[in-house]
Amino acid sequence: MQRVLPAPRLRRALCSLQAARCRSSWVRWRPVPAATSRWTQSVRERPFSTEVHEFKAETKKLLDIVAKSLYTDKEVFIRELISNASDACEKLRFLQTTQAVKEVNDADTPLQVTLSVDENERKFVIEDSGMGMTHDELVEHLGTIAKSGSLDFLQRGESDASKIIGQFGVGFYSTFVVADKVQVYTMTADKEKGSKGYLWSSDGSGSFTIEEVEDVPRGTRIELHLKDDATEFASLANVKKAAQKFSSYIDFPIYVKEEGEPKAINKQEALWMLRSATEEQHLEFFRFLSHNSYGKPFYTLMYQTDAPLSIKSCFYVPDPDNAPSRLFTKDPEIGVALHSRRVMVKKHADGVIPKWLHWMKGIVDCEDMPMNISRENMQDTRLMEKLSMAVVRRILRFLQQEAKKDPEKYQQFFKGYSYFLKAGIIEDKEGNFSRHKDDLLKLLRFECSNKSKGELISLEEYIDTAKEGQQNIYYFTCPDRQTALSSPYMEQFLQRQRNVILMFEDIDEFVVNAIEGFKDKKFISVDSADKNFELDIDQPEEDTSEDTRVLTDSEQTQLSQFIKSVLKEKVQEVKFSDRLVSSPAIVTSVITPHMRKMMKSLMAGKENDGMGNIPMTLELSAKHHIVTTLHTILESNEPVARIAVEQLYDTACIAAGTLDDPRVLMSRLNKVLEMFVYQGAGYDYAKGEYRGDLASPPKVEPTEVAKETKVESKDSRFEEVKPEEKPQTKRAPGDTES
Ligand SMILES: Nc1ncnc2c1ncn2[C@@H]1O[C@H](COP(=O)(O)OP(=O)(O)OP(=O)(O)O)[C@@H](O)[C@H]1O
C-alpha cells in the first residue's frame, strides 16, 4: 500500500495554515489520505486543497437518525449501493447510446460492478465503472437527500430509523448504519467535464470533505470502514450472500472478489423480457424494484404485445395496507421504469405512467422507443402518449378482471388505492383526455343505501339492480352512513327503496363533478335542487291515515309569503315539494350543501367566501303536521309562528350540514325552550296570559318572545329578526325593555 505523507515540517506548516483557514473559510489544507487497494494503487496523493462542506440541515438530521439506529436489517446498505452502482452504469450506457456523452474517460473499461472486503482492515468496498461524479455532482448528490420519501418522513417529524429505512431506504446514507467512516473515490465518465478524480469523505456527523486525487479510474469506488457491531460485512461469505440476493435482475455483471479473483454472481436476467415467470422470480424482482428485502406483490401483471407498439412489461401492485399516504405524496416519483431493448431510458417513466398510478412498480420495455426521447420532439411525445394509452388501459383492464375474479381481494386493494383511482378520473378530465374515465369508473366501489354497512358495489352493479326505467344514478356525499340514512334528503329514497350510492370521501364530490355520468346514466345528488328525481317511476305506499291534512294552494302561497317576510334574503325561494316524508323542511341550492360546505372551508378566512351570494331554497312538505299547524297559527299567534319559521330554517340548515357553528342557535333554542316550559305551565302566548284553569300560576313570567331579538353572533342571519308587532305580555320581574 502506497502512503505518501508530506514531510513533518511541511505537515506542521500545512496544519497551521489549515487552522488559520478554518477560521476564515470552508477551504482548508489537510494531510492527504492514504490511497488504498488495487483500484487506487496508481492514485498518487498530493496535498490538494481539502474542502470541508456542511451537510444540508435535513441530511444532517437523517444521518443522525441513521448513524444512531440499531436497525437490525443492516444488509440493506448493500442493496442501496449495488442499486446506485447499477444506476451509474445504466446512465453511462444510456448517454453513450444517445451520444449525449461524446468522449468517455477510460473508454475501454467495460460496465461492471465489483464488491470486495478486507477482513483485517474491517473494510467493505464496492466499485463501479459507471458514470462517476464531477466535483459539483459530489457536493450536490452526496450532500443532500435525493429520496423524496425519506424527506417526507423527516418533515412529518418521524425519527424511527427502522421505519424510514424499511419503507423508503435511505440510499447512499444507509452506509452510516454500518460504517463510521465512508470514503468515495470518483471520476466522471464525461471527458468534456474533465478527467479529475475526487475523494469524498465523511464520518456521518455534520460535515464531509472533498479533495482532488490523481489517477482515479472512471466510475466510483466506495469504501466503508465498518463499525464494531457490523464487522460481519467484512466477511466475504456474508457479502456474497447478500449481494446475490440483491443483484439477480441487474443488467450488468456483478463480481465478488474471492482471493483477488472476480467471480460473477448475477444472472443478468431481464424478467420482463421472458414469456412467463415463476412466483418466486416475481417475488425477487418485486423486492428488487421496491428496494426492499421483504413484502410481496399484491397483484402481478406481465403484459406483452406487438400492436400498436412492441411492448414487454411487468407490473406489480404493492401491498394496499402500505399504500402511500395521499397527504404526503406531493410530487411522487413514478415507480415504473422505461426501457428500450433492455436498456433503461428513464428510471421514472413519467409521460408513460400517470401520477395517479405512481405507486405501481414495474418496467415497460418498448422496442419502438428511441433512446434519446425528448419532450420537445412532437413525434416522441406522440409515441409516449401511445405507449401510455396502451399500458394504462391494460393495467386498468387487468384490475377490472381481478375485481371480477376475486371481489373480496379487490376490495382490499380498493381500500388502499381508492383515492388514487378517483384522482385519476379528475386528472384525466383536467388533461382534457378523458381517455381512461370509463375504465376508472368501473373500478370504483361504494357503499349504498340498499346494502348493509361495509358492503361495496360497483357502478355497473348499481345500474343493473336499479329500478326499471331509472335514468339517474343517485348519490349522496356525507360524512358517514348514519348521517346519510337519517338525513331528510334521503327520506323519499328510503321510502321507495330506491338505491342511493353513499360517498364518504371529500374527493367524491369532485369526481362526480368531473364526469357527467356512467354509461347512459346521469349522476344526481339527492340533496341537489334538481327536480328530476323520477318520482313517477315508483310510488311509495299511499298514506291512508284519514286525518292527513294537506295545505291548499292558497294556503301554501300565504305561508310561503309569511316565511319570506321572516327569513328575507336568507332564502331566495320558498316552495312546497313532495320529496319529504317525515321532515317538515330542507334547504337546497344550485350547488349541493356538501359542496357548499367544502367551498366554504376552502375559502376559510376570506372576508367574502362567495357563499352569501348563492341563493338557498327552502322546500317544505305541504302535509307535514308542523307545516300545516304553522299555517294555522299564522294569524292567531304570529310571535310563535315567527320563531317557528326561523327554527324550521335553521334545523334544515343543520340537516344540510351548512350551519358552520351551532352556537349561533343558542339564543333561539333557549327561547324555544322557554316557550315550551311556559306553555307547559299554562301560559298562552297568543293571549299573553295564563290559562284561567291553572290552579296556581307560576311566579315568574316569560320574557317577550317577540321582543327584538339580537343575538350576539357573527352570523348576520340573526341580525334581521325584527317583528313588526309585539304581543301584549306582562313583563317578568326585573325584565327591562331594550
Ligand atoms: N455509484 C455511484 N455513481 C454515480 N453517482 C452516484 C453513485 N452513488 C450515488 N450517486 C449519486 O448520488 C445520488 C444520491 O444517491 P442516493 O442513493 O442517496 O439516492 P438515489 O439513488 O438518487 O435514490 P433512488 O434510489 O430513489 O433513485 C444519486 O442520485 C446519484 O446521483
UniProtKB/TrEMBL annotation:
UniProt keywords, alphabetically: ATP-binding, Chaperone, Nucleotide-binding
Binding site for ATP: 80, 84, 128, 133, 147-149, 167-172, 220, 375
Region span, Disordered: 691-738
MF GO annotations: ATP binding; ATP hydrolysis activity; ATP-dependent protein folding chaperone; unfolded protein binding
InterPro entries in UniProt: HATPase_C_sf, HSP90_C, Hsp90_fam, Hsp90_N, Ribosomal_Su5_D2-typ_SF
Basic and acidic residues: bias regions: 701-738
Pfam families on file: HATPase_c_3, HSP90
Record Gene3D superfamilies: 3.30.230.80, 3.40.50.11260, Heat shock protein 90, C-terminal domain, Histidine kinase-like ATPase, C-terminal domain
Protein family according to the UniProt entry: Belongs to the heat shock protein 90 family.
PANTHER family registered for this protein in UniProt: HEAT SHOCK PROTEIN 90 FAMILY MEMBER (PTHR11528)
Descriptive protein name: Uncharacterized protein
Originating organism: Effrenium voratum
Organism phylogeny: Eukaryota, Sar, Alveolata, Dinophyceae, Suessiales
